[in-house]
Design brief:
Helix 6 packs antiparallel against helix 7 and helix 7 packs antiparallel against helix 8. Among the domains are: about 140 residues, no CATH class; about 60 residues. With about 300 residues, the protein is of the alpha+beta class. A hairpin with a 2-residue loop joins strand 9 and strand 10. It is about 35% helix and about 15% strand.
């Protein structure tokens, strides 16, 4: 039940006007984003990596993977610019600006930036089980065509190999910012807290740098939770869907539960004893996948004991 006089919950706008001259470009870029996991290429390759360090990967590789995503979008030009109308434009990552990926050109007499993507990478086997980035940009700094995109990734061989993209999360950048502020105010009022938000000084799209003047700030935020996108329901369904995607034939959520056993520094014998109960959480007793899951877990245990996986 909504409170009397409560601020209405924001809704997506549907993107820029259908009459906008670049609307087809906007729609085609979205198609390219969804197509990217199948076409993604990177020179990154991880080997000789300890499975016990699996949760450090997001910090170690996040920026490099985001760079590879931008290169991938430019390689998919035939998807978002099939007729060559935007040949002088390219996606460019500017890590200290908002949005941090922009479709830009330096050609005189051309609009310098047509749209932007605030790009986030998320290692899908991170310990938290959800993206932890903070999104604090003020709504009005988001142009109509700007997007917030989160690309989850895993390693092709779980604890080794090349980064592999999973299905992305995509939403309107302004809507995500509006919903964040609405959620914060609503949640704080319901809990008897201070709902105040100090809006950013900068209120127009495409600031030159990502500095404090384009970020909103909660007046009271002792836990540092303002801007935690995963906390206000925007991507809950998507996070659950990623948890069920298979990597090497095993659901992400099963791998994550397994790695958490090691992160707690449990004794290997203790871990082995726990595996049986963990299996029951993900597959039924009579499901043939249970055997595959047990085998996969056993291989990781062998690796941690220093045994060869080639046997």
């Amino acid at each position: 039940m909504s409170r009397e006089g409560a601020e209405p919950k924001p809704e997506p706008s549907g993107g820029p006007s259908i009459d906008w001259e670049h609307r087809k470009l906007y729609d085609d870029v979205i198609q390219a984003i969804y197509a990217l996991p199948e076409e993604f290429e990177t020179s990154l390759h991880i080997s000789d990596f300890r499975a016990t360090d699996i949760f450090t990967l997001n910090t170690a590789l996040g920026a490099s993977i985001e760079d590879s995503v931008v290169r991938g979008l430019n390689r998919l030009r035939e998807v978002w610019d099939a007729d060559g109308k935007y040949a002088v434009y390219r996606f460019e990552r500017q890590s200290q600006a908002f949005p941090d990926v922009r479709l830009v050109t330096e050609v005189p007499d051309k609009e310098p930036c047509l749209m932007g993507i605030e790009l986030k990478g998320w290692f899908a086997m991170s310990k938290e089980g959800e993206p932890t980035f903070r999104y604090q940009v003020t709504p009005r700094v988001c142009a109509d065509a700007d997007l917030l995109v989160v690309f989850p990734w895993v390693l092709s061989d779980v604890v080794a190999g090349a980064p592999k993209l999973l299905n992305p999360f995509l939403t309107e950048a302004r809507y995500a910012a509006e919903l964040r502020n609405w959620y914060w105010r609503d949640m704080r009022i319901r809990n008897g807290g201070n709902p105040g938000i100090t809006l950013a000084k900068h209120q127009t799209p495409y600031p030159s740098t990502k500095v404090d003047q384009c970020s909103d700030r909660a007046d009271v935020d002792g836990g540092g939770n303002f801007g935690r996108v995963a906390r206000y329901g925007l991507m809950s369904d998507w996070i659950r869907s990623i948890a069920q995607q298979h990597v090497s034939g095993i659901p992400v959520i099963a791998w994550l539960s397994f790695f958490k056993l090691f992160s707690d520094k449990a004794d290997l014998d203790q871990i082995t004893d726990t595996i049986e109960s963990e299996l029951h959480k993900f597959v039924a007793e009579d499901d043939t996948r249970r055997e595959s899951l047990a085998d996969a877990f056993a291989r990781i245990v062998s690796m941690l004991k220093g045994e060869s996986l080639e046997e």
